[in-house]
Amino acid sequence: MIDTHAHLNFKAFKDDSAEVIRRSFSGGMRAIVIPSSNYTTSERAITIATKHDSCYAAVSLHPIHVHPVKSREAGVAKPQFNRVKKEVFDKQKYSALVSKNKEVVKAIGETGIDFFHNPLSLSSRDPSLSSRNSEDV
Question: Among 89, 17, 102, which residue's Cα sits nearest to residue 60?
Fold first, then answer.
């Protein structure tokens, strides 16, 4: 089994990502892909993947960081707009990050239909985001 979407690079796993990885592999997991949502989480994904065999990073900039909207979180009544940091896509910066870490970066992109953050998918607001993520890097 391969976990293709484990956000071990998010703050919730700051203190125990290594333990989560250990338990996953001892439970039968064969590989883990750590997707990113912005440059900072892309760097964290690479750091984690570098330290653990069979862990790989997906470098990306999620549309929610390009066009911040009031985000909703399961079970949270108050919009979480302040938790979403806007980022402008920097092709050179992302390309350099991927080029320096090819041994662990195995995917590019974190786009698509996102009904979790916004009932009107962010990609549908700007369809070019899906293709730009992979073409630009």
Answer: 89
